[in-house]
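FAQ: What does the model actually see?

It sees only this:
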Amino acid sequence: MSSCVSLFIFTQAYDIPRLRQDVLDCFYHCYNDEQDYGGFLLGAWDHGIAYGKTAPSSPIRKLLVDAYRMFMIDDHGGKVTNITEHPKEFLLDVLQSYVDATPKQIQTPYESTGLNPCDYYEHASKAEQQACKIRVKF
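And it is asked to produce this:
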């Protein structure tokens, strides 16, 4: 998954929107289709790279924050306890995501929300978003 962060940064640097969506799809499928979410949860180093090389409005930041809020487990299936190595901006975004979340999203994060790739794509219009929803239903 670390390579997906690097690939996303590449797609921004060279303005390759379709590949950028494919990278976001990769994250989406890893988090929504696999049973071992902890294996796909990125660590502090990856968050530092993503936050150091993307703008605050970047969809990869939103996706990483949402995934962390929903699947905050470590490699052994326990809750993450050591957060001190994560970038402060990332931790503030995670905290803000809890503030913005509904009570149901916090109580049963994955079951109530899942991840929707269209929430992270940079759609130019509603029509494009509707067409995309059809595209992502596999």
